[in-house]
Amino acid sequence: xxxxxANSVIKQFGGLVAVNKFTFDLLEGQIASIIGxxxxxxxxxxxxxxxxxxxxxxSIIFNGRSLEGKSPDLxxxxxxxxxxxxxxxxxxxxxxxxxxxGLHPRLKSFWVEAILQTPRVRKEEKEAEEEANRILDFVGxxxxxxxxxxxxxxxxxxxxxxxxxxxxxxxxxLLDEPTAGMNPKESSVMMHFIQNLRDETGITILLIxxxxxxxxxxxxxxxxxxxGTKIAEGTPTEIQTNxxxxxxxxxxxxxxxxxx
Amino acid sequence: xxxxxNTLKILLKSGLLSGVIALSVSMIGMVGLFSQRDMxxxxxxxxxxxxxxSPAAFAYLEAVKISKDDWRKGxxxxxxxxxxxxxPLIILVIISTLVNLRQYFVSVSDxxxxxxxxxxxxxxxxxxxxxVMAFVGLIAAGMRYMPIKYxxxxxxxxxxTFGVSLFSExxxxxxxxxxxxxxxxxxxxxxxxxxxxxIVLFVFIAGITYWQQGHKSxxxxxxxxxxxxxxxxxxxxxxxxxxxxxIILPLILGTYLSEVINNVGLYILMGxxxxxxxxxxxxxxxxxxxxxxxxxxxxxxxxxxxxxxISAFSFWxxxxxxxxxxxxxxxxxxxxxxxxxxxxxxxxxxxxxxxIRIMANSDLLKPFIGGAQGILQIPKPSIxxxxxxxxxxxxxxxxxxxxxxxxxxxxxRDSRLGRQWMAMREDEDVAEAMGINLVNxxxxxxxxxxxxxxxxxAIFASKLTSIFPHSFNLLISINVLSLIIVGGLGSxxxxxxxxxxxxxxxxLLREFKEYRLLMYGGLLIVMMLAKPEGFWPSxxxxxxxxxxxxxxxxxxx
Lengths: 260, 557
Fold this sequence. Notes:
The structure holds 2 protein chains of 2 kinds. By secondary structure, chain A is α/β, with parallel strands linked by helices. Chain A has helices at residues 42-49, 72-78, 95-103, 111-116, 119-138, 154-166, 184-201, 212-218, 236-241, 243-250, 252-259; strands at 2-13, 16-27, 31-35, 57-62, 65-66, 80-82, 172-176, 204-208, 221-226, 229-234. Chain B has helices at residues 2-27, 30-34, 46-65, 71-98, 110-116, 122-144, 148-166, 168-187, 195-224, 228-280, 289-303, 315-334, 342-361, 366-369, 391-413, 416-426, 428-433, 438-464, 474-487, 492-508, 510-513, 516-530, 539-545, 547-556, and strands spanning 38-40, 44-45, 188-189, 192-193, 382-383, 386-387.
């Protein structure tokens, strides 16, 4: 079943066409990747999905509903969560508080109830805290709940960002370069973590990634972007042998040499 | 060798800086004015204290930099700074004998020169000044080499003695009304403390502090070691005592101090509101006085018995309308500024505050709210037939308002909404991506903040019985913002501390009033350098500003 379907999406900034007629389908439960050189428009496409940018043309359908014109908070509540290329945690809040903010869409209490401390609020807050701790354990950060997000080591910050994203119980998780700045060993730990996350929760995951070992290792479907357009799509093996992809990454000469 | 030169250079710099500070507080007239207030009768005036504060502070700070074992060097540094501090003042004294400086500097009067020379002639006076300043520097530097066991009680003793002396006027009046004039005469002399009493007080406080050092921790341990249920009981007892003190406070304080406390209370109420907007939600609002004005004008129009009032409402019946009017104004202001951040938001809110004040002053609205003539004959609140006209009675109205506002702030801070605000303050885009509806979250911050301010304004109108547009100028917004910064952004007890320092103190020390803004500026600068998180910071604020130390110490463990 297709969970996310982007159909010739166009996003322009003045004269620059950042995303140009990008068409892409994502199957439920899949781990898919978008790759491409820097400035190809991958993050812009993420921003179009999450509602941070309004795309100019085309359509994005998520779970049977159009995302066009919806605000970021609404899209999150519809079941899409994301992480950022440069980690954007709430640095001066503790790890647990970060996850509690992520849990926000699942909580129902009204602020007046919080003033009155109704039993419902107390119950909800207690459950939220337990749930946050559970998520913290799940991403392997047990015991670090009271640490400030900014004081966590880099890898833990990446994990915490994912924890915060999955706290909203999304159907689709968008990860923007989850292994950026990691050494090969850390990358491979992160790769297994992502795979494990999908296997255990059944969440659909869409990655932007530069680390080819990670991309080829866990993706079931890969779309390649260059100058805003999709130049190829397919399984890892198909992508690895696609001349247009090699051309985009290494230049025309290399592609010619490869084909010999 | 080189190091020695460096130390000398630093000492020279801070010594002269200290001297320049002493010189400038003299030349702008603070020393002269403050000298009119005796602190310890015949021994010390506030002006002298101000004069000696700068060499004392600099000598202590320099001594702290010098190694702990090298006490000779430290004392010498203090002496050196003290002497240097006197030099600019002596130059001033000498010049003033040659030229009539008063033409250029109004405050350089004969009185000032007399103060600086201790009523002696120029030569002897200058030598005295150098000696006294050197002595002050020496003592201040010496404090650093005293074991903390003794230093702490001495500091406490000094703070209390100076504090009591500073507030002698109000305190002596209170003592007289409770214990009669005989005891008052032993303790106070006109507006100052008797020297003997000052010494006794110092010894007493220092002694108690010294004794307490051994026992304080054991009391705390005793309570901490109790089982949770017992601990809760103790907490309740302390809470009960606190509330009891709050209830009997106006009886202890008397009329004048109750009036001061009431003013502080109104600012606390405003501060609690602005603390939600700026401290929790991170929305810088410089036009906060607007909501205060709206609350006050609503109260005035609804209850005034004059020509402009409807007069059909009692204070209590009008109160909800005042809060509702302010809340609506908060939402109305919130809607156009939803997409604005930081500086832009500050400027728009600043404009909003001015618009409200100018409208209150305008001819357009004159038929309704009286323009510059304001609204008169606003009745004081009453319960049944009892009109609450005394400050000691109004106190309870304000107290209830403050307690409610503080409770709401406290509950909201730890709630889901509080986390929304915090997240928004940290990173607005990410907060939105976490499913937080920014429109609701911002409007709620503006609305609740405005509501507290409206409540404060309503009580203010009823307390003064008449209101005029000029009571609602920009300075109030600035005062409220300063007080929450001084207390610690986002901290609820911080608002109380900030209001007490920035509103209560100037009220008690009328001499300060002329230099109020200077003191604000000075206090804010000193605070940003020494205690950037405020006097009573929230845990978050503390974390934010000390994250560096935390992270480095975290790495060690």
